[in-house]
Specification:
The structure holds two protein chains of two kinds.
Chain A lengths: L10 H17 L2 H14 L4 H17 L5 H25 L2 H11 L14 H8 L11 H9 L5 H14 L1 H6 L3 H19 L13 H7 L6 H25 L9 H27 L12
Chain B lengths: L7 H18 L7 H15 L19 H14 L17 H14 L1 H13 L12 H10 L2 H11 L2 H16 L3 H14 L7 H13 L16 H24 L3 H8 L15 H18 L31 H21 L3 H19 L9 H11 L3 H17 L9 H23 L9 H8 L1 H11 L5 H4 L3 H27 L3 H7 L1
Helix pairs in contact in B: 1-6, 2-3, 5-6, 5-8, 8-9, 9-11, 10-15, 13-22, 14-15, 15-16, 15-22, 16-17, 17-18, 17-22, 20-22
């Protein structure tokens, strides 16, 4: 797993706690998972991005067990854990309502712009066409950790995603003088993960979880997995080319931010692709039978 | 679902590629004055005619390697032109632009390809056990022990030298001898001598081995020398190869009448018995004993303090110094000691040659003997012992144990080379990585027959941890840091010298007591 600590943000703590949360849920230790995630949330409010899946999963589990019986009991236990943890963390600030408001104000500064620098999301990319101004903030690393967990299940996609995320930070890395570590670690990561996980061989339909989608699109599109494989290589070449030009070529005088913008647009398009892919896989995933040993 | 097991070839390629990635990450790490040395040599070979190479003295780092290395630098300088022309100007002393650093570092990484090829050839010479899985195979372990060698990584890719390339030539020459291609091996060694003359230390091993095993084609039934088997043709062939190589290398300088000047540059004997930081050899122990006796003598009123020469051996500069109690040591004395220390080994392979493996063992002993008793030895010279020993370590239990002691101690003694704070985590983690790997892999390889190290040896090695903590962290905070700043270095030298001496003795015992390889194979 790569970790970019440009700017010394100590992100590891919140990301680590969130991972403990995911691990807890994966092992069926719901209370432990909720505790860990609540702590992560109280460490860095960025984890709110992950809170919806946690909430939906736990809620779904409670509903499944029946809200009148065991499910309700589970819900109560989780709610209590979360509330108590929040209370303990916020205790010094809860004495005065003005204090708590001030904390919230600091946590969610609505005065800042829609995006900082050139971020690879919808708003920045759209900004190229239409000028937009509201609020959001940037952190790509946030998404990296959960993706690393699926690297064993769908190696090619995970590797692709991780490389894109590092690439999307290229302008920032160049500013910090990290060109060499970026180039070397990206190449090393690409080589090692392809070599050790044999990712390029695991691209049959079933392995990319696309069997159902393939059945739907069989008429209009050729082999879906082949498309994905070619897109992977194409995007690698594009990212390498853009990295190269960002470093060696001078942007034209009229468009001084050309390369950072191109980087963020390319990354955005790829992230869009990933979000569609992950959603498709999630929705089309056949129900796991209870007899299977795998926990999810 | 587990990934399918990679094949041996792809595994080797992966190891070589990944260590190159690691070396690339070290490009912007600390580099020593050796960086400027090589930049200066690039400049002078590029800008000056050959007749001036060994006379040029604008920079203090004059050319003190043999001519073939100068030609190597000359070749590199033509590529250097495309990175930064300014580095080729002799007057640009201490010039280190980013392009210069990048070029020099990349040249070391590229030259290491010779080492990669050599290791591949060496792996072919090992006795393979087909049953083992890939990670437990001797060839895999050897590849990691040599390509990922901690000493090579920090000396070549941080401190800055071209040892990887040179050791590649050495290991290739050894591999050729294993493959019975003796003429090629001799040729490669002659080239090596003309690249860096420090390899003269092991020339006796080569000389005796080639004479005994190549020039005498037959042995008697009991393995002893058969004088009638002498082949004049082979001797002449060997001689021609060696002399031709030397002629090509030194020829231009002999023709110009510059041979004395070249030799004086190659062998500057004005320097002291020990380097500023004592290599962990016999003389380090000798110095400490001398110091201890002098202090003891003064305390017991046996010696007069005013009559003792001033202590200058522990100063930073490389100077001549006198011993107080024990006799002072001259270069000739060290030469005599070195020859005496390697003589038994040479005699042994003359009487009972053990094929290529016996030669390799003798080579290691020659290198270690020269390290122990040589004049002005650099601690980096321990690599000349550790790398060939790796070949023996993956095949024999006793050698594996000696390798562990020697490599851990030897690598630790290289720590003072990297004294900057930024390199501290790098050197500690790389050292731990290498040590843990070598220990676990060799332990697994030789798991039959008990543990590899006995408790005393294990305690000694573990003692390196508190030593490092004291020297690196605790001592600088004490009062003595200002008055005796050299003490941590001295502790390191002396402590490591004990381990190195122990390894030397064990190596000798293993050489003198081992039976013929052929007999061993027959009894298996």
């Amino acid at each position: 797993m790569k970790h970019r600590d440009t700017g010394k943000k100590y992100n590891s703590v919140s990301l680590g706690l969130a991972l403990w949360g995911i691990l807890g849920l994966g092992l069926g230790w719901d209370l432990f998972g909720s505790l860990a995630f609540t702590l992560a949330l109280n460490y860095k409010q960025m984890e709110l991005y992950h809170s919806l899946p946690f909430f939906c999963y736990l809620m779904g589990k409670c509903i499944k067990q029946g809200l009148t019986g065991r499910g309700f009991f589970l819900l109560a236990k989780i709610a209590l854990t979360v509330l108590v943890t929040f209370a303990l963390c916020w205790m010094p600030f809860l004495s005065d309502p003005k204090q708590s408001l001030q904390v919230l104000h600091r946590l969610f500064p609505v005065d800042r712009g829609l995006f900082e620098d050139k971020v690879a999301n919808t708003w920045c990319s759209l900004n190229v066409l239409i000028k937009i101004k509201t609020l959001l903030s940037r952190e790509t690393q946030l998404f990296l950790r959960p993706v690393c967990l699926v690297i064993n299940e769908m190696p090619l996609i995970a590797i692709w995603f991780l490389l894109t995320s590092t690439f999307s930070m290229l302008p920032l890395l160049l500013k910090d003088g990290l060109l060499l570590p970026y180039a070397v670690t990206s190449s090393a990561f690409l080589f090692l993960s392809l070599y050790l996980l044999s990712a390029l061989e695991k691209t049959t339909d079933e392995e990319l979880r696309l069997s159902l989608s393939h059945k739907l699109t069989q008429h209009c599109l050729p082999k879906l997995s082949l498309i994905i494989k070619w897109k992977f290589w194409f995007s690698l070449v594009a990212m390498a080319a853009l990295s190269f030009t960002s470093v060696w070529l001078e942007p034209p005088a009229k468009l001084p931010d050309l390369f950072p913008v191109l980087v963020s647009v390319l990354s955005f398009l790829q992230f869009l692709g990933f979000i569609i892919y992950f959603n498709v896989v999630q929705l089309m995933e056949p129900q796991r039978k209870k007899s299977q040993k795998k926990t999810n | 679902m587990a990934a399918p097991m990679p094949s041996e070839h792809s595994c080797f390629f992966a190891l070589a590629l990944c260590v190159s990635f690691l070396k690339c990450l070290l490009i912007n790490a600390y580099h020593s004055t050796d960086f400027e040395v090589h930049r200066n040599w690039l400049a002078l070979t590029h800008s000056l005619p050959v007749s001036q190479w060994y006379y040029e003295a604008t920079s203090e780092w004059t050319l003190d390697y043999p001519p073939l290395f100068a030609w190597f630098e000359y070749g590199l300088s033509h590529i250097a032109r495309f990175f930064d022309k300014e580095m080729l100007v002799i007057q640009n002393l201490n010039y280190a632009s980013p392009a210069t650093v990048l070029f020099q570092r990349l040249s070391v990484i590229a030259a290491d390809m010779v080492l990669v090829y050599a290791v591949k050839e060496c792996c072919k010479c090992l006795r393979e056990d087909k049953g083992k899985d890939l990670l437990g195979k001797p060839s895999f372990i050897l590849t990691v022990l040599v390509l990922w060698n901690f000493g090579l990584l920090i000396v070549d890719h941080i401190h800055f030298q071209y040892n990887g390339f040179l050791f590649g030539v050495l290991l290739l020459s050894i591999a050729r001898h294993f493959q019975n291609r003796h003429l090629e091996g001799a040729f490669l060694f002659s080239i090596l001598l003309n690249l860096k003359h420090i390899y003269l230390y092991i020339a006796p091993a080569y000389g005796i081995f080639l004479l005994r095993c190549f020039c005498f084609t037959q042995n008697n039934a009991d393995g002893s020398l058969q004088w009638r088997g002498f082949s004049l043709l082979r001797l002449v062939a060997l001689g021609t190869i060696v002399l031709t190589t030397f002629a090509v290398s030194f020829g231009p300088f002999i023709a110009l009448g510059q041979l004395p000047q070249v030799l004086s540059r190659l062998f500057p004997f004005k320097r002291g018995l020990c380097h500023a930081y004592w290599a962990p050899n016999f003389w380090a122990l000798y110095n400490v004993a001398d110091k201890a006796f002098s202090i003891l003598g003064v305390k017991l009123k046996l010696l007069d303090m005013n009559k003792l020469p001033k202590a200058s051996m522990t100063g930073g500069l490389v100077q001549e110094f006198q011993h107080s109690v024990l006799p002072s040591v001259s270069p000739l004395a060290t030469l005599a000691c070195t020859l005496l220390s390697v003589l038994p080994a040479l005699l042994r392979i003359w009487h009972r040659p053990d094929g290529a493996r016996g030669f390799l063992r003798c080579l290691v002993i020659c290198a270690l003997g020269s390290f122990m008793f040589g004049w002005h030895v650099h601690e980096k010279a321990i690599l000349m012992v550790i790398l060939p020993l790796s070949l023996l370590a993956v095949e024999s239990r006793e050698d594996a144990r000696i390798f562990l002691i020697l490599s851990i101690t030897g690598h630790y003694s290289l720590f003072p080379l990297l004294f900057t704070t930024q390199e501290l985590p790098i050197k500690i983690f790389l050292m731990l990585l290498f040590t843990i790997f070598s220990f676990t892999s060799l332990k697994t390889l030789f798991r039959k027959g008990g543990s590899l190290l006995n408790p005393l040896e294990a305690t000694y090695l573990l003692g390196l941890i508190p030593l490092e903590l004291i020297c690196e962290f605790v001592y600088p905070l004490t009062v003595w840091q200002k008055t005796f700043p050299f003490l941590p270095l001295m502790f390191t030298s002396v402590y490591c010298a004990l381990g190195v001496t122990y390894a030397f003795i064990r190596l000798y015992i293993s050489l003198l007591t081992c039976s013929d390889t052929t007999k061993r194979i027959k009894t298996q």
